[in-house]
């Protein structure tokens, strides 16, 4: 049978295997339709078979006839895709909370045994005068008030005294819009070009009157892809303008003067009297409107950055090179007009700051050939060169500071993944870093690191079922303070709070040279558990030992940087994420994070214990050996050996002015909760924050108490017969009754003024615990499936609610916006609540 089949198929097989040269089939009619040169080329026979090169599924773009070949080129057009996002946001801002002020008692003090109104012409600063309800206007032509002077009720024109509102805050408007455009050019279904353009513009009033900020930015990049890699060029521009810079605490001073203005004086009636003199409630104080309206303050900042990224890869080698250049210019004028309290002839300076930075980052990666168990072993070398030049110039006084640093950071390492099976991967990274610079007098060439981890995937043998990842590492690295960092804020360390109106920083650090680099030894541990992306648990721990840390100190009237401290940081971060389908299209997502840390000062160089980190000369955060970083230092009540408060012969507690630890601003923990509900194209989002523990010095309350402007002084100033707990100097229990404010005695001897503007600092340490609803938003998304366009509309509230044990406005606000100042409050600007709408259109 098989022979019969072979016999039947033999003619067909013989025909199929016949080999002969392809002969052109050309007719006269066909030749007449072709161009002459093409017809001529087809008349020549080919000595060898014609080879056709073609691509299935594409149109033919051209046919090239060669001596031995006919090349058929496919028609593969370049594809251009365009897309982008336009976003606009409009919002209103209002003040969230202000200190409780008294509205019952006027400017003045006790004179000759009775409470007396003291007008602005007397220079009076205190609000310990008579009750507002006991006074009326006399109707005379008075340069400080259009209604006249205040006199006892029944002796004037019968018009009762007015409780003026000296609030300087307003409802502010913010408008932001941004446009993002991206384009891709593809050929052979591969990306050839990629273009990106980002534009944004923000006009922002702030809640303090006569203040507005403006910012605009541009970012553009272009990427060209080749078979061997890619080349990317990028440029960024950022421009910012502020009406009033706050480097010298100018806005805090305006805020302070608005709060301290007595209820009987109206700041809004003008900055000048009808006689042409300055109009304020005291010649030792300022009218906040005068400071805001009649100044030459301004701040402009521009930042430009250009970079080029070269990515070259040719297995097994990859190379990356990124040179970049950055230029930052800051131009600010800081000004107090003549007549300002503390500066009777005025005070101004122009501060010009220029930063020029160049960096060259490079990476060389070599991938060794792996096998089934040893996956992707690789050797990596990174070299970073940075050059930074900063120049700061003040005009008054004429001072110029210039800092320059060239630094080299080289690291070499080896990494490998070992795969036991498809469920277990083990990873190891080892290497060493080298760091040296021209500003460091000690170079270090041995900074090893090791990072290891193991990943367990799909433990229940179901794809993407359960994954556990464990990592641990030890890193040694050095660091230096950036030369562009300003330490002018350290001049506040030399001012007492009562001298706040003299604070005008015009001094920078002398130099950055000759310092040892800060040494860090860091242990890290991480574990991550992922179940179906529905349950995610992450935990990370860090233990970092820091030696020779650098801080600013004053010596011989110079601001110097010194290596003075050794400290240890321990931090724990826990995160839990849950996503659950409730029913149908209703989904809920919850993310809970818990963060806690401790930063303990282990050692401080001789002579530098209690070095201030932020604050004033008498109340500040400091470096204290054996204590948490930045404990609060201040005066306390004097105590005996049994810790009883000592009482003087007048019945009031005595003061111990020796610096002592009075508080610790470090919280016990910070708990954050992020919740989102999704239903079809709707989403509702809210974030909460609970900060437990930590202390804060309420210097704002101390100053308001001192000047008699706080609600507490109004409620308690008539207290009599009070006996402070404590003992007399002879050890006997205190039995001397006192009046908090006795008109028969000078005003400076009452309950609040006798201890000065900052009071007994320990008496104003308060808990900073708070629960905050950070933001809440409701969004709806409109989709156009055929076009790919999408519109999202959102309504949002930010900084919505605050529940706190702190009696001030907000425990998170910073002292004059200075770094490391958490835990100190001296007329810190209040936080603002934001209401807004945003529109985002994706096309």
From TrEMBL:
<protein>
    <recommendedName>
        <fullName>TonB-dependent receptor-like beta-barrel domain-containing protein</fullName>
    </recommendedName>
</protein>
<feature type="signal peptide">
    <location>
        <begin position="1"/>
        <end position="16"/>
    </location>
</feature>
<keyword id="KW-0732">Signal</keyword>
């Amino acid at each position: 049978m098989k022979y019969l089949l072979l016999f039947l198929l033999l003619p067909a097989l013989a025909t199929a295997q016949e080999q002969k040269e392809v002969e052109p089939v050309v007719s006269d009619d066909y030749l007449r339709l072709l161009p002459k040169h093409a017809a001529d080329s087809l008349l020549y026979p080919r000595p060898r078979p014609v080879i056709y090169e073609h691509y299935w599924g594409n149109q033919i773009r051209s046919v090239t006839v060669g001596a031995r070949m006919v090349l058929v080129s496919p028609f593969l057009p370049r594809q251009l895709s365009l897309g982008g996002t336009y976003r606009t946001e409009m919002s209103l801002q209002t003040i969230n909370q202000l200190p409780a002020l008294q509205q019952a008692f006027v400017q003045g003090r006790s004179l000759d045994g009775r409470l007396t109104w003291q007008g602005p012409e007397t220079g009076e600063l205190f609000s310990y005068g008579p009750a507002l309800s006991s006074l009326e206007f006399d109707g005379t032509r008075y340069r400080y008030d259009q209604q006249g002077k205040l006199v006892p009720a029944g002796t004037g024109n019968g018009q009762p005294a007015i409780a003026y509102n000296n609030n300087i805050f307003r409802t502010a408007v913010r408008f932001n819009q941004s446009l993002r455009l991206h384009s891709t050019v593809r050929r052979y279904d591969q990306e050839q070009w990629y273009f990106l353009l980002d534009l944004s513009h923000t006009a922002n009033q702030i809640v303090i009157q006569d203040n507005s900020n403006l910012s605009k930015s541009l970012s553009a990049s272009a990427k060209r892809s080749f078979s061997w890699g890619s080349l990317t060029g990028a440029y960024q521009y950022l421009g910012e303008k502020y009406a009033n810079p706050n480097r010298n605490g100018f806005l805090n001073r305006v805020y302070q003067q608005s709060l301290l203005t007595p209820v009987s004086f109206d700041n809004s009636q003008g900055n000048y009297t009808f006689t042409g003199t300055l109009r304020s409630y005291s010649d030792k104080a300022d009218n906040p409107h005068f400071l805001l309206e009649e100044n030459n303050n301004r701040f402009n900042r521009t930042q430009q950055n250009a970079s080029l990224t070269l990515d070259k890869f040719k297995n097994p080698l990859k190379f990356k090179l990124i040179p970049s250049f950055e230029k930052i210019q800051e131009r600010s004028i800081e000004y107090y007009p003549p007549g300002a309290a503390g500066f009777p002839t005025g005070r101004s300076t122009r501060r010009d700051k220029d930063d020029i930075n160049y960096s060259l980052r490079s990476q060389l990666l070599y991938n060794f050939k792996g096998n089934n168990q040893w996956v992707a072993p690789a050797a990596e070398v990174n070299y970073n060169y940075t050059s930074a030049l900063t120049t700061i110039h003040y005009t008054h006084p004429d001072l110029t500071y210039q800092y320059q640093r060239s630094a080299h950071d080289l690291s070499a390492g080896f990494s490998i993944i070992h795969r036991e099976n498809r469920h277990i991967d083990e990873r190891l990274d080892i290497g060493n870093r080298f760091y040296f610079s021209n500003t460091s007098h000690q170079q270090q060439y041995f900074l090893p690191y090791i990072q290891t981890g193991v990943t367990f995937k799909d433990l229940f043998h179901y794809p993407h079922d359960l994954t556990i990842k464990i990592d641990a590492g030890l890193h040694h690295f050095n660091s230096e303070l950036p030369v562009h960092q300003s330490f002018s804020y350290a001049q506040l360390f030399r001012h007492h709070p009562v001298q706040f109106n003299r604070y005008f920083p015009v001094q920078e650090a002398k130099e950055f040279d000759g310092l040892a680099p800060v040494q860090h030894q860091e242990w890290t541990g991480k574990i991550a558990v992922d179940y179906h992306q529905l349950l995610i648990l992450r935990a990370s721990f860090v233990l970092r030992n820091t030696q020779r840390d650098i801080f600013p100190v004053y010596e011989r009237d110079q601001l110097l940087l010194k290596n003075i401290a050794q400290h240890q940081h321990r931090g724990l971060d826990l995160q839990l994420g849950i996503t659950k389908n409730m029913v149908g299209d209703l989904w809920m997502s919850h993310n809970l994070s818990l963060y806690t840390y401790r930063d303990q000062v282990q050692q401080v160089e001789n002579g530098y214990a209690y070095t201030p980190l932020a604050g004033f000369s008498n109340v500040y955060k400091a470096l204290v050996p054996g204590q948490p970083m930045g404990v609060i230092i201040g005066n306390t009540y004097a105590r005996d050996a049994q810790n009883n408060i000592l009482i003087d012969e007048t019945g009031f507690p005595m003061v111990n002015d020796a610096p002592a630890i009075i508080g610790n601003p470090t919280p016990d923990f910070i708990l954050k909760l992020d919740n989102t509900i999704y239903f079809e194209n709707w989403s509702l989002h809210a974030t909460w924050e609970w900060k437990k523990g930590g202390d804060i010095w309420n210097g704002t309350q101390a100053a308001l108490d001192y000047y008699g402007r706080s609600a507490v002084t109004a409620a308690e100033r008539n207290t009599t017969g009070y006996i402070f707990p404590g003992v007399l100097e002879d050890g006997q229990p205190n039995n001397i009754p006192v009046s908090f404010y006795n008109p028969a005695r000078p005003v400076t001897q009452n309950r609040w003024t006798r201890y000065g503007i900052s009071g007994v600092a320990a008496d104003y340490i308060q808990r900073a615990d708070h629960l905050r609803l950070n933001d809440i938003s409701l969004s709806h998304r409109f989709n156009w499936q055929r076009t790919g366009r999408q519109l999202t509309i959102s309504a949002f509230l930010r900084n919505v609610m605050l529940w706190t044990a702190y009696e001030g406005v907000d425990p998170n606000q910073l002292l004059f916006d200075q770094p490391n100042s958490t835990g100190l409050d001296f007329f810190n600007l209040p936080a603002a609540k934001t209401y807004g709408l945003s529109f985002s259109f994706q096309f």
